[in-house]
Automatic annotation (TrEMBL), chains A, B:
SUPFAM superfamilies per record: C-terminal domain of ProRS, Class II aaRS ABD-related, Class II aaRS and biotin synthetases
Natural source organism: hydrocarbon metagenome
EC number: 6.1.1.15
Lineage of source species: unclassified sequences, metagenomes, ecological metagenomes
Protein's name in the database: proline--tRNA ligase
Keywords associated with the record: Aminoacyl-tRNA synthetase, ATP-binding, Ligase, Nucleotide-binding, Protein biosynthesis
One GO term of the biological process aspect: prolyl-tRNA aminoacylation
Every Aminoacyl-transfer RNA synthetases class-II family profile domain range: 36-283
Amino acid sequence: MEEDTGALPLKDDFSRWYNEILWRAEIMDVRYPVKGLYVWYPHGFAIRKRAYQILRELLDRDHQETLFPLLVPENEFMKEAEHIRGFENEVYWVTHGGRNRLDVPLALRPTSETAIYPMYALWIRSHADLPLKLYQVVNTFRYETKHTRPLIRLREITSFKEAHTAHATWEEAERQVQAAVELYREFYRQLGIPVIVSRRPEWDKFPGADYTMAVDTVMPDGKTLQIGTVHHLGSNFSKTYDITYEDANGEQQYVHQTCYGISERSIAALISVHGDDRGLVLPPAAAPLEAVIVPILIGKRGQEVLAAAEALLCDLQDAGYRVHLDTRDIRPGAKYYYWELRGVPVRLEIGPRDIDAGAVVAVTRLGGRTTIGRGKVVEGVRSVLDRFADEIRTRADQEMARRIRIVDSMEEAAEAVRSGVAVLSWCGSPGCAGSIEETTDASILGSGSRSPHITLADQPCIVCGEPGTTTLIARTY
Amino acid sequence: MEEDTGALPLKDDFSRWYNEILWRAEIMDVRYPVKGLYVWYPHGFAIRKRAYQILRELLDRDHQETLFPLLVPENEFMKEAEHIRGFENEVYWVTHGGRNRLDVPLALRPTSETAIYPMYALWIRSHADLPLKLYQVVNTFRYETKHTRPLIRLREITSFKEAHTAHATWEEAERQVQAAVELYREFYRQLGIPVIVSRRPEWDKFPGADYTMAVDTVMPDGKTLQIGTVHHLGSNFSKTYDITYEDANGEQQYVHQTCYGISERSIAALISVHGDDRGLVLPPAAAPLEAVIVPILIGKRGQEVLAAAEALLCDLQDAGYRVHLDTRDIRPGAKYYYWELRGVPVRLEIGPRDIDAGAVVAVTRLGGRTTIGRGKVVEGVRSVLDRFADEIRTRADQEMARRIRIVDSMEEAAEAVRSGVAVLSWCGSPGCAGSIEETTDASILGSGSRSPHITLADQPCIVCGEPGTTTLIARTY
């Protein structure tokens, strides 16, 4: 729907690259006439559907999908004091229906604890109802006053996957926190996106939580992007909403809860981590099209090539591939450019010489060429796609490793956060955190991270010398 | 999450039956603390997902899925005068973000013309961009002041599938109206739901449309439920939003548009048309589980039966069936009751005698028994499911036929609408419509219906004797 005019900026100029690739690769249109609200183009939405299908399949193993209302009445919303303080400046309020003022203002959910937990109070009766693990994929709203940015900082988060679980004990809920972290790791592994998991400092935890684990990735400009959070809610909400179960002894007990979310920031990470100067680079699992066939229709054998390309299309479709045959009347080079921009993992070229050789040429989005015998094309394309998925995952892992630096001094830390994450030891005190954040002009991301890239053992605090914990420092989105 | 206490009311007592089956079969919970907003239970949501998957597959043949924002700024919303008059009393308004009053109030979309068409004005440039056929599945909002009812009359329509197309000419748009009607017919055919398609009278068309085609079904209480609409918008919106294309002669022309929608009323119809005194009856295509295996674990051969049931489960899962093995420690009869209430199409019983006979007993939700040889179980279950789908479709068609009556007099019409639809001829004048509606205490549904059940040729108007058109009269939801 848009003409490709001019070239994509280089990815080194990340902010411009990001803004341009969104419309050039037909991910989002930013011209909707309200700040912070954007339109998903069909191609962007198709990528979102693929990614969320992976997420749903992981969740569906032991969660159930459900759907709760968007509108939360003010009285329910205002029940949990700490939670409200965290959100009250960000909530959109519906005050009128038609020409009438509503008796009770309705909040557009910024997140759904206050919509879901009154129902959990009705649904949970006995220990046999536990654990309860539900999720929904919904639009949520934040009245962001900061600079908004497509997929990253939005007023309508269109694709919030939020899971809410209830358990008999605090320890069971803690195990669920770990399970959720592992689920998110697996989700991002399938997308080839490297992540760091850490425990957020007290002042940065979810309002109403006992603690928050966060999943971050490092963006090409060295800033970290939070792309998943997992919260241990303890019994804070169950006490507010009176969610109890009868235990084996017939006593009423408060449930212990967790909640965890992922939004379309996962798509922002997918675009940013893998993309390059020529456009999107999609892992096959998230690609609406795994392969595109470009027939080389030159010379007199055009009809023959077209027929061969159509036969190839049929064979691959029958084998279950998502594949498209590009028969447009434009030069092959223009087609290459078009599909590279949109991130299709593999291009299959077939021309007169390939027909004569009984072969098809597969070129990956990163330029790797493989000649596949026509008779083995179904297995051959699978193998090319699998290797390509490994290649971009490895490439992203190496990039992440390059951006994480163990530092010995505040000066080194200040240097390291300009291109990524600094790893140091910190005692946990807000005072020392203030020092670190001021000197580095960056934030305490979190502690207790386990990752092959973060090999620092706990050492004395870099500021005060008291016993410290391995801690990540970064500039954040 | 709920105990099954007491029995479902008889379906003849339809209104009570409907309200009770919603929670007993775990479709929706109506206890959410805002009028007209409901919670989807996982089982209800799983049915909704199946049905919408069918709808998406039909649309994806030549439409693309997309996603537009929920919030529409007042100035865009207020542009199309006729459209606004149709919705202004039903629109929810967001007036505050945090503690701030918004400069421009934001409407929660009641439908998305006013959100989508400003973008179409940017996207459509030339005839090469046409036809444009997009759809989205979204939540929409209506401040209903009438009696609300789950899935039928809602304040949050959680599952509005709306398609919006643009064409070069009025005639092309008209062909799209026909294509959309056929698409909806096919959708409902796959769900086994019989429909009547008719053209709504002028005063009942979509605000801003040239005309509206509607898809209705007849509910068990004889009232019709509108379960799909298709609107020819002409160039009414393209003139308001300035959506033009350059034709082959280089002239700017307004596009001609259509839009068409289906909501979770499709699920209300699915439940109501097929359900019976024992609970839901789901067509296999929309059933989260196609089959449930109930092992008959009596006597000494319990372990052997369980092993046989597990082997059966594996075979059916490997063959792609959605199937569950119910190993709960309760009586088989209680399991039958449980799964019948939830509408599972086929129950597979396997006990010691079946093992000895090398067979499995399949019992459909309507009671049909088939003994399938264990070696042919994969094909056997497919055949049972296919016959069951035909059986419930035929049953629903016959019920529909029974409820449509061609009438010769107003007295007969008044009688016919008490149990369904009266078919008569009407001249098209509002005066005669008023007479008909007053005498029958029912509404003009629409005209120009093509259906094997509606065989009346156009005759003189039943009121004034002027030339008339075959017209449907019914009490409506």
